[in-house]
Design goal:
With about 475 residues, the protein is of the alpha/beta class. The chain contains 20 helices and ten strands. A seven-stranded mixed sheet has the order 3-2-1-4-5-6-7, sandwiched between helices. The protein has a three-stranded antiparallel sheet with strand order 8-9-10. Strand 4, helix 4 and strand 5 form a beta-alpha-beta unit. Helix 8 crosses helix 12, helix 12 packs across helix 13 and helix 15 packs across helix 19. The chain is globular.
Length: about 475
């Protein structure tokens, strides 16, 4: 066994433990540290056959076990716990060493930490890791930020443990400086929220409008997963819907409370989008849908509100409707990714990160929760046109949306008539229609703002800002 480690992991809950095992399985000697020493020893004893581990019982032992430049991975809760670990280890490190934060940190915290540690000569690498506990063990999608120098040393190791796309490419890239990695991971999670909401709406429409059972819907999802909707989330949805609860004999989905929880990254995506002035309405609707699901008292008090009478479709009608739902789901997914990539581009411009959108799409092709076949085409779209203003501006995606729009609209008509909520589908279509509109009602909004607050407006026929004197003869003056 080696007496020095190429990398160390502190924080050995599920994600940290599996990431440490992943490094060891790939031939690296891994130093282990945890606040509870028993957990550290247990990991080495249980999984020592997978590779070389060095057990450290103190921060000093842990740092001493790492070869230079030291690479120290933090896998603890975001916020104060991360700051506490940094404060514990930073004084023990030397210039050129690295602290890698693999948690779901807020990118603004990452920027702050990176700046502070840079002054000490320590590289702070905020790293998004997607794929859950299985991905951490068998190969996640990895989104590291930080300095180019840190990636030169750390990158080959991350590439080795990462997921691999079907073409063999490692699902990791140097995203950009300081908080870029955690920003991109945040948006990834926002897209994940939207993706899951859209899939949920498709399920609900197939059940409540078409009249299919969960098992039948599972078969429909399996069929969809052989085509353009091929993705991890569609795959696991079919598995969930086909599962029968052993205790009751009911479909498993029917014994799960309809209250979806969230950890915060979806909210962050929407909050930061508001700060950047980027419309991510589909992601926002997904976040709000989870929030609404948790308001049990409000929902119970509203059960008696009036609504339409349900009309179940015949067999042939149901099959045709399912095809239309597939079109609506695919079109809405394209819009969700469009909004997410727009936010990444805006964040990159705001903070000077120079994020390569094609590379982001590339590393999401494997390992992560939103991995999907059409990410290959998103990558190709951005590689072909790095200045692409929107995925909807790509000829192929634009044509697919055009082909889907009639069915998309019909699905929403059916949802409205039957009283089935489909906020994700509706928000995506509204975004699409707003983009293609020649004029928006924002003209009236700005005129109203000028009326009550003298906020001025711009004209379509000449340059400059203007204000109308609404209280008098309504003459116009230059502002």
């Amino acid at each position: 066994m080696s007496t020095s480690a190429q990398i160390g992991v502190t924080g050995l809950a599920v994600m940290g433990r599996n990431l440490a095992r992943n490094f060891a399985r790939n031939g690296y000697t891994v130093a282990l540290h945890n606040r509870t020493v028993a957990r550290t020893k247990a990991l080495a004893e249980e999984f020592g056959h997978e590779g070389d581990f060095i057990v450290a019982t103190s921060a000093e032992e842990f740092v001493a076990a790492l070869e230079r430049p030291r690479r120290l991975v933090i896998m603890v809760k975001a916020g104060d716990p991360t700051d506490a670990v940094i404060q514990e280890f930073a004084p023990l490190l030397e210039p050129g060493d690295m602290i890698i934060d693999g948690g779901n940190a807020h990118f603004a915290d990452t920027r702050r930490r990176e700046h502070a540690l840079r002054e000490q000569g320590i590289h702070f690498v905020g790293t998004g890791v997607s794929g859950g506990e299985e991905g951490a063990l068998n190969g996640p999608s990895i989104m590291p930020g930080g300095s180019k120098e840190s990636y030169e040393s750390l990158g080959p190791m991350l590439e080795k443990i990462s997921a691999k796309a079907k073409d063999g490419s490692p699902c990791v890239t140097h995203v950009g400086p300081d908080g870029a990695g955690h920003f991109v991971k945040m948006v990834h999670n926002g897209i994940e929220y939207a993706d899951m909401q859209l899939i949920g709406e498709a399920y609900e429409l197939l059940r409540d409008v078409a009249g299919y059972s969960p098992a039948q819907i599972a078969d429909i999802f399996r069929t969809w997963n052989t085509g353009r909707l091929d993705s991890y989330l569609i795959e696991i949805t079919a598995e969930v819907l086909s599962h029968v609860d052993e205790a009751t004999g009911k479909p498993f989905v029917d014994v799960v409370q309809d209250r979806a929880e969230q950890k915060g990254t979806g909210r962050w995506t929407v909050q930061i989008a508001l700060d950047l002035g980027v419309p991510v309405s589909g992601i926002a609707e997904a976040v709000f849908a989870r929030s609404l699901s948790g308001h049990a008292d409000l929902r119970e008090a509203s059960r008696g509100l009036a609504g339409p009478k349900a009309r179940q479709l015949g067999e042939s009608e149901a099959a045709a409707f399912a095809d239309r739902v597939e079109q609506a789901l695919y079109a809405s997914k394209i819009v969700s990714y469009t909004q997410g990539f727009h936010e990444i581009a805006a964040g990159s411009d705001e903070y000077g990160w120079d994020v390569d959108l094609g590379s982001v799409a590339s590393i999401w092709r494997g390992g992560c929760i939103i991995r999907a076949a059409f990410l290959d085409r998103i990558r190709a779209a951005y590689d072909g046109r790095p200045d692409l203003p929107s995925l909807l501006s790509d000829d192929t995606f634009g044509q697919e949306i055009a082909d889907a729009q009639d069915d998309w609209r019909e699905v929403l008509v059916a949802a409205t008539r039957q009283g089935v909520p489909a906020p994700g589908f509706a928000a995506a279509l509204a975004y699409y229609d707003a983009l293609r509109a020649e004029r928006l009602p924002a003209a009236l909004t700005q005129a109203q703002r000028d009326f009550f607050g003298a906020h001025t407006y711009r004209r379509t026929d000449r340059d400059g800002s203007f204000h109308t004197l609404w209280g008098g003869d309504r003459s116009e003056v230059s502002a």
